[in-house]
Design a protein that fits this description.
The protein is built from six helices and no strands. By secondary structure, the protein is mainly α. It has a single domain (3-109), classed as Orthogonal Bundle (TerB-like), CATH 1.10.3680. The radius of gyration is 13 Å and the shape is globular. The mean pLDDT is 90.
Length: 114
Amino acid sequence: MTLSELTHEQRVGLVGLLEAVVMADKTVSEPEQDVLAGVVGAIGEEMFRTVLEEADRRFVDLDALKTFLAGIEEQPARNIIYGTVWQEALATPSVNHDESELLAWLAATWSIAT
């Protein structure tokens, strides 16, 4: 599965999760920008903006995002979303506590071996 094959709902989850991870340290580094550019390239700039706006409306807090993510059931989609967000988290020199806690929760929830 590729990013372009994700459903609309899965894309909303991906972008909401990316936003949570990127903003965890309050900055967007150049390597993080590169990962985001790859996502935009895969799903298209217009689609990215659409799902970003939807994610901002739907995920008023981290609990809302977690509830939504727990509902994504297709394992190939989980794998591509987790892998993409993992790349984003590793794009900075150090993964902060909030990022690592969220990714650990997600790996456990989605049964992803880390």
